Structures are given as structure tokens and as C-alpha cells.
Amino acid sequence: MQIRFTPALLAVAAATAVALPAQAQSFPAADKPITIIVPFSAGGPTDRVARDLAEAMRKPLGNVSIVIDNATGAGSSIGTAKAARARPDGYTLLLNHIAMSTMPALYRNLPFKVDSSFEYLGIINDVPMTLVGKPTLPANNYKELAGWISQNKSKVNMANAGLGSASHLCGLLLQSALKTQLTTVPYKGTAPAMTDLMGGQVDVMCDQTTNTTSQIAAKKVKAYAVTTTKPLTTPQLRGLPTLDSQGLKGFNVTIWHGLYAPKGTPAPVLAKLNTALKAALKDPVFIQKQQGLGAVVATDRRVEPAAHKQFVAAETAKWSPIIKAAGQYAD
Fold first, then answer.
1. Which residues form the signal peptide (predicted)?
2. Which of 8, 42, 222, 279 has its CA 20 to 30 A from that of 214?
3. Residue 194 has pLDDT above 80, yes or no
4. Is beta strand 183-186 parallel, antiparallel or unpaired with respect to 157-160?
């Protein structure tokens, strides 16, 4: 079939070609805020990363207003779906963590595709995890904790922030490594899980340093180990041994966060957002805030969109068999 290029059709094509550069030049408008959808509850670790990042990205984007929309539920799939449906104009973004690589295995009927419903903007940080317990737990170190868990097994209550959360995933790996099935207690967010852990309603939890560091420093929970293969240098967590060094060889869980835009967002707009993101990741205040929470700001090639997407694909391939082996998924 031959297409006839009429003057009207050529005019539309020319207008479209001019519109994209014009949109990039006008983005972001001073009077139009950018919304970052966070698919987890306010006050949680991912929310804290998002709010710090929003502040750091304001200046490189011309001091535009950036607001946070906490669209929670279903292991971050509700907020992620909301972002996928958003108008692809750069004014709605998504900040999510490792859930972007685990949702395909956890949920059978997602209303979006992680690999094709989004434009990838870059990885933000890597966040270690810590194994913590209620303050009245009889174990005072990991060796004692492992013995206590072995004696009590299914009587041990392990909290998490819900299906697909970082604490849920870390808990799956820990139970697999210990060859023990604990009683898991899912919550609707990290904050209520931590509240009950401090209050002694649950026994243990494996969660991000962005949520546990201040509680460990205040001695509101007992800290047993970090999930990285090397000890952390954060002042509050320095000296806390790794699980790898205490018998769980190769145990290594790090939670990462990334920034996304809806599929179809114009390339010039994406370029501006990526430039602003990379500027934010070099902001001394942002870096200091993240370090204070035990997080490591990304400086490698994953801050580039293509490498970010490749990384998520690799993480998906790593986590899918672990989740399927555990048999923990939702419709």
C-alpha cells in the first residue's frame, strides 16, 4: 500500500517534529508540579528516599515543586499501575525499589509490564538490610539468635511490611538459608511492623537500614547482623557483623531504588529528568542524608537509563526462581 503525503499530512508531521523540542524546552513548567508516586506508605524507608530525592531534584529542574503521592497496597503494584496509566508528559514519575524485579513472579495478573510499561531513568541507591529483634528477645548475638530460632522454629513470629516488600523478600531468603519455616506476620507497611517489633508483639524482622538505623541507635530493637558481605561503615551500624561472616555464607541482600516515567514520555523530557537525577545523586546534602541511613548513593553506570533497565532484568531473573520455590504469590 502506498501512502500519499498530502500537504495536510506533511504539515502535521512538521508540527509534531517541532513540538517535541518545544516540549523539552518548556519542561518543566514553573506553575506545574511534578508528582513522584511512591507505592508504599508515608514514613517508610522508600518514602524517605523519595522525599530526600525530590528535594535534591528541585534545583536542577528550576526549583519546580515536586510532590509525593503515596499510592499504597498489593506489594507496590497498585501505585505502580497508577504510574503506568499516567499521562506520559514527565509530570508523573514512579519511585520504586526491588519490587520492580519481583512483582512479575509474585503476581499473576499485573495490569502492566515492568519491562515495557515504563521508561527507565536510573538507579538511585543501594540499601543494606539488617536483622533485628524485639528488645526483650533472650538472644544477645546472632549465634544465640540462630539457636533460639532452631529451638522454637514455627513459634517464632517474623514481621514484614507485606507481600513483595523488602522485608518480605529478605525474610524468604533468611528462612531458606536457615532451612526453617517461621510464622510470618505481614503488615500494611513498614511503620506498623516496626512499631509492633519494638513493642514485642513480634519477634524478628529483616528490614532496610533506612528504617532500622535510628531504632538500633536508640536501642529500641536488638541488632544481630547486616545482610551485606562486608560490614557497614555507618557510625550507628559500624561493628555490626554480617550474616555471611556468621555462618550463612554468601548471604547478600541489598535493596535498590529506581526512578521511572510512563512509557511514551518524550525523549527530550526523559533526558532532562535523567540529568536532574544525576545532579541530585551528586548533591552533598542528599548523599549525607542517605549515608546517615546506611544507604549508598549510586555512582555506577546504572544511573543511565539503558543500564538501569538491564540491571532490573538481571534482578528479575535472580529473584523469580526464589519466589516461585517459596510458593508465595498472589493473584
1. 1-24
2. 279
3. yes
4. parallel
pTM greater than the 0.85 cutoff? no
Residue pair 125/298 in contact by the 8 Å Cβ criterion: yes
pLDDT score of 162: 86
Q: Looking at the domain 29-127+255-326, which fold is it? A: D-Maltodextrin-Binding Protein; domain 2 (3.40.190)
Q: Is residue 9 very low, low, confident or very high in pLDDT (cuts 50, 70, 90)?
A: very low
Task: Count CA atoms within 13 Å of residue 96 on its CB side.
Answer: 32
Parts of the chain belonging to CATH 3.40.190.10: 128-254
| CB atoms inside a 10 Å sphere around CB 247 | 12
Residue 9 has a CB neighbour count (10 Å cut-off) of: 11
pLDDT, residue 1, reads: 42
Residue 31 burial (10 A CB sphere; 0-12, 13-18, 19+)? exposed
Start and end residues for every CATH 3.40.190.150 domain found in the chain: 29-127+255-326
Task: List Cβ neighbours of 151 (8 Å cut-off, separation of 6 or more).
Answer: none
Q: Was domain 128-254 assigned CATH 3.40.190.10? A: yes
